[in-house]
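Below is one such protein, fold included:
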Amino acid sequence: MYIKKFWLLLTFFSIFFSTILPFNYINNFSGRSIYQATVLLTGLEYPKGLWIKGNEIFFTETAGRLTSYGGKIRLCKYNVFTHQKAVLVHRPRNSDAVVVASDGKIYLTSWRQRIPGERGSVSVVDPKTNIETHLLDIEIASTDMFIDSKDNILIIGSSDKPDANSIYLLPAGNYMNPIVLKKGLGRTQCISMHKSYIYFSNFSAINRFDINDGSIEIFMKKFVISISFSKKYLYYASIIAHSGVIGRIDLTTKSDEILLSDLNLPIAVRYDGITGNLYFLEAGTKEGKYKDGRLSVINVEAPTKFFINAVSEYGVVSGVGWYNAGDRAVVSISTTLIIGFPYNMVFKGWVDEYGNIVSTSQRYKFVVMKSVTLIAKWEKEINVVFLLSIIFIIVVILVTIIFLLRRRKREKYPLPPPPPQSNFNFYFYFIL
């Protein structure tokens, strides 16, 4: 009797823990996000490559390579302060991944032959001309790339061949002589680097490659599409239970936290260590014909620095740049008066992004607590010298006109005839 009740209870709890709890977990997971994303751009055509350089976001669109009905292939740039998007290269040769070096040059890579082929290429875009130039071909079906602070470039690719190249290193200053770091990794997704480890993912796990001894270990069994690091976390994009998610893994405890869910195929993530922002791309769906991709951002960590921006229509602005929290910033304008005719432009102060005048001084000093954009306010004022000059010219013209009119009046009346000559001289001459 008791044994029968025991087995009934055991069966009930087994069913509860194996079905009901996981089901509730998936429902809670897919419908809950602890962060709120800000959408920066919409209508992107299957964006894929993503990189951050200062206040600019570089990304690629690849719909034209993936669909039979065409679409855009281009390299684009988005400025986070001006909120302006610019197309740098139309139909670049490579568009699967993008990185930006310290000198501003933009590097792109793409596979040239699908798996099981091992062909890819790397190109470079001059930031001054936005002209793409072929750099080199590589024996790898490249899928992702990463550049470190010293401008060393890592490229990872996929293959079904056990001896195929998998990870390339393009050494800084010697990109034309790549080094094969690892072979035979199979089909891979993404690559990044943290300290002395190269992290990459395949279709089952995030792996960690020690560049010192060449060993590889599984960091976490998890399918991810893209990864990026802060000092504390590994951020990732993934698909879980048919839901696109953005999450992070604590590098010390390996605790996994979902930040956003119900996303439209998140395909790339990049963490900005200065602002504490995480930028990510959603590729979009086939139903939207790859024209519903988005660029979004969430603030996930406290910023280490703040950007002070100042703009002016006239003069030269100084003091723009990155500051630590608590630093004292000084923003100034080179002049407060621009002479013109008939108006002068006069500096009236600094205005914040909400339209409030925060200072009327030429030099504005303040303690940095957040990123701000200051706009120099100018107003028109009549040029007094110009006004006096106009008055003087008018007076001269009036005096001249009056003088000429009076002179013409005198010329209208004939002069009187000369008086008759006196006979005194004749008489005097006759007497003599």
